[in-house]
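Good morning,

Attaching, inline, the backbone tokens for the sequence recovery test we're adding to the shared suite. The designed sequence is right after.
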């Protein structure tokens, strides 16, 4: 990687809530969050303008709540609050590394986060601050994948990077189907027609309408985020 420069001017990194939980998949693991922060700082140090959207599945899922009798809209709002907790944990880890970070929430809670104002968020990025978008879109029934696609478009990102636990997109779930084939490149239409589960259809459609490339890669492998930003062929690209 020596001598290479970043291939993206600005990216939006989408993290699942489970990415903060370590091996257990539940809760917030301090060591895991600290390691994620170090990887993000490596990319930021290259001069890449960087925004993040984090899910809340490690703490609460609205759909799961609905299975236990909680009204869907209420459950989704609870899930949005979980994303704010994760965003604050990431902010804390990044600022311990002297990286100036702003948490921007789609639901107003001014004591702990800024309200989402597009121009202000873009200005933070222009000033070299990392912006963590929390609370999804602020609306029930929309996933944080859709929020990532929306925010990436709003802030003028060059690409949406989706960090997962597998090394890209497959024809089927590789954990369930040993015959699943890795797809290094596919179009938005193919992703929608194949019902690729790595992102929901609304997020894929939004990226397709706005010509936002999506890079899906294995975030659990140390250094992959940096490799992706430097243009190495990892994961799968949807465009």
């Amino acid at each position: 990687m020596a001598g290479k420069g970043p291939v993206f001017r600005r990216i939006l990194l989408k993290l699942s809530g489970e990415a903060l939980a370590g091996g257990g998949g539940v809760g917030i693991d301090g060591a895991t969050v600290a390691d994620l922060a170090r990887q993000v700082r490596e990319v930021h140090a290259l001069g890449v303008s960087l925004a993040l959207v984090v899910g809340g599945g490690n703490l609460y899922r609205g759909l799961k709540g609905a299975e236990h009798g909680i009204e869907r809209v209420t459950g989704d709002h609870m899930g949005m609050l979980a994303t704010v907790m994760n965003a604050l944990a990431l902010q804390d880890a990044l600022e311990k590394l002297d990286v100036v970070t702003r948490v921007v929430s789609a639901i107003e809670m001014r004591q702990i986060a800024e309200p989402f104002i597009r121009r202000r968020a873009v200005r933070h990025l222009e000033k070299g601050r990392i912006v963590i978008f929390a609370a999804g879109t602020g609306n029930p029934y929309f996933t944080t994948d859709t929020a990532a696609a929306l925010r990436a478009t709003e802030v003028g990102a060059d690409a949406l990077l989706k960090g997962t636990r597998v090394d890209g997109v497959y024809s089927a779930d590789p954990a369930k189907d040993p015959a699943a084939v890795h797809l290094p490149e596919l179009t938005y239409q193919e992703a929608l027609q194949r019902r690729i589960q790595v992102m929901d259809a609304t997020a894929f459609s939004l990226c397709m309408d706005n010509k936002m490339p999506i890079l899906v890669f294995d975030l659990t492998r140390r250094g992959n985020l940096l490799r992706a930003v430097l243009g190495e062929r990892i994961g799968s690209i949807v465009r």
